[in-house]
Fold this sequence. Notes:
By secondary structure, the protein is an alpha+beta fold. The chain folds into three domains: about 1-65, Uridine Diphospho-n-acetylenolpyruvylglucosamine Reductase, domain 2; about 70-195, Uridine Diphospho-n-acetylenolpyruvylglucosamine Reductase, domain 3; about 205-275, UDP-N-acetylenolpyruvoylglucosamine reductase, C-terminal domain (Uridine Diphospho-n-acetylenolpyruvylglucosamine Reductase, domain 1), CATH 3.90.78. It has helices at about 30-35, 90-100, 115-125, 180-195, 215-225, 250-265, and strands at about 1-5, 20-25, 40, 50, 60, 80, 85, 105, 125, 130, 135-145, 145-150, 170-180, 230, 235, 245, 275. The two termini are about 35 Å apart. Uridine-diphosphate-2(N-acetylglucosaminyl) butyric acid binds near residues 206, 211, 217 and 219.
Amino acid sequence: MKVERRNLAEFTTLAVGGPSEIWTVESPEDLERATSAPYRVLGNGSNLLVSDRGVPERVIRLGGVYARGSLGRVRDGNEAHLTPWIGAGVLLPALVQEALQAGLSGLEPLLGIPASVGGAVRMNAGTRYGEIADVLEAVEVFHAGLFHVLDPAELGLEYRTSHLPPGAIVTRVRFRLIPASKKDVATLMSRVDAARKGQPKRKSAGCAFKNPPGDAAGRLIDEAGFKGLRAGSAMISHEHGNFIINTGGASAKDVWKLVKHVQEELNLELEWEIWGELP
Ligand code: FAD
Ligand code: EPU
């Protein structure tokens, strides 16, 4: 196990966040030690806004056995393929590519989501083509010192959220995928890719706000004329209204000013999770 003090900006896709104690766990014993004091679990940091002062709790990252795993060997035929257990620290984009190469269908809707498997489960990551809940077979969780294997139905997975008990750490996951031709998998992937074309490639944490029922937060922010609004080095993207980007060296305080402005004007629900205290 490695314990180090680092800026969380190095571990978040928005590149924002102050000094914190990072515990990289590699085994069940590490998990037990790391969870013996207050902690938070970090995935790929792609849905987080972290305070410039960092967080006082331990920040647990999954390494070792929890960052390994692959989809496994696929047999021919049309029956569902149950993957081996895959570490929750594995990155989703790697699995999506592996599925394409293996000729396995089910992960295509998740193309382009820069999540870890554990973070994707916690947030029920998805697109309008589908969400991770659709392809989960079983989820292993470490909670209160014990490992539990849960049926996905027990996780309360809903639009961009779940009802995992506070403190529960997703450690491993099994997927249920369908053997398919590479061509079919690639076709659906290119459709999902096309739906992401309007999203900025700059540093961000994805969509900042949830879509209100029947509408799109990006459209509402656009209509309100907020695109291009800046606070320090943070900016509401010109490309997509629901993305706040870090144009270089933005602070959490900058980003938060934009979030508050949008919330006060449009009353949208935040999709991001906030870590630590923001002004
Ligand atoms: P983090 O951001 O690190 O953490 C998010 C939450 O999950 C925190 O509460 C954290 O404690 C918890 N968590 C992380 N790992 C674990 C674990 N192992 N066990 C328990 N809890 C855990 N999201 C979508 O749904 N659809 C999209 O199309 C999409 N597009 C995006 C595009 C870009 C460019 C970016 C930057 C983000 C996008 N997102 C999208 C948002 C983000 O990728 C998802 O919310 C994702 O699920 C977050 O996963 P993560 O591993 O980065 O989690
Ligand atoms: N729109 C505008 N102006 C903008 C942005 C969008 O008018 O600046 C309009 C679009 O023209 C479209 C509608 O709003 O009519 C919806 O936009 P888009 O197709 O870009 O999809 P979205 O609803 O904004 C959702 C998810 C994304 C996911 C895409 C693709 C949410 C909050 N967002 O975006 O997820 O990648 O669909 O399926 O559910 C995320 O959750 O972080 C995320 C990026």
